[in-house]
Design brief:
The complex is a heterodimer of chains A (about 110) and B (about 120). With about 110 residues, chain A is mostly beta strands. Chain A is built from no helices and eleven strands. In chain A, about 0% of the residues lie in helices and about 60% in strands. Chain B contains no helices and eleven strands. Classes of the chains: A mainly beta (about 110), B mainly beta (about 120). The interface between A and B is medium-sized, with 24 and 24 residues.
Chain lengths: ~110, ~120
């Protein structure tokens, strides 16, 4: 059974810092990995999708990497802003399954 | 593209009543939709997979008679919480993926906050 772990569970940084969020998964037979953002009481916004054959994806100040063999992904946020404050969720889609498996999330607070 | 609309965004109901939550794919047809439940400060837990034109597939431990799922069209899935009790209070989120191409990932609704009093 796939298990997804995210470290740290919470993070507070001053504005302008570069930061890294970590995601690890136990079953490397994945189809893709997706990073989401969730604001309090809201749904999920997709940030980046990495296919199993890819090593990384970039969107603006966000960069996500994938090392399938070691079961790890990182989300890099450059020059953090207070508006980046949210919970970041990592989710994997295993081959042969249709539903995502989510990590427990990292709650990020960027201090102005 | 790939927008999922979920209604209502919040609902308060009395214990013992039933509540229906709708999940619509606005610009694509979704043969499969997913229903998740999220407790405060916890991650999303898959409840069931909704299949258009057939019965839903429930995860272990989810009561199918309490959480009724209907996926009668390619753009609409509904989750009905029957005889709701305070312990059913939670945040419910649906998701869908455009068929034929999981390469675009999954899209989520805005969620429904259910409070049973």
């Amino acid at each position: 059974k796939q298990e997804v772990t995210q470290i740290p569970a919470a993070l507070s940084v001053p504005e302008g810092e570069n930061l890294v969020l970590n995601c690890s998964f136990t079953d490397s037979a994945i189809y893709n990995l997706q990073w989401f953002r969730q604001d309090p009481g809201k749904g999920l916004t997709s940030l980046l999708l990495i296919q199993s054959s890819q090593r990384e994806q970039t969107s603006g100040r966000l960069n996500a990497s994938l090392d399938k063999s070691s079961g790890r992904s990182t989300l890099y946020i450059a020059a953090s802003q207070p508006g980046d404050s949210a919970t970041y969720l990592c989710a994997v889609l295993n081959t042969g399954r249709r539903a995502l498996t989510f990590g427990s999330g990292t709650r990020l607070q960027v201090q102005p | 593209g790939a927008v999922v609309s979920q209604h209502p965004s919040w609902v308060i109901c009395k214990s013992g009543t039933s509540v229906k939550i709708e999940c619509r794919s606005l610009d694509f047809q979704a043969t499969t939709m997913f229903w998740y439940r999220q407790f405060p400060k916890q991650s999303l837990m898959l409840m069931a997979t909704s299949n258009e034109g057939s019965k839903a597939t429930y995860e272990q431990g989810v009561e199918k008679d309490k959480f009724l799922i209907n996926h009668a069209s390619l753009t609409l899935s509904t989750l009905t919480v029957t005889s709701a009790h305070p312990e059913d209070s939670s945040f419910y989120i649906c998701s869908a993926s455009p068929p034929r191409d999981r390469a675009y990932g999954y899209t989520f609704g805005s969620g429904t906050r259910l409070t049973v009093v």
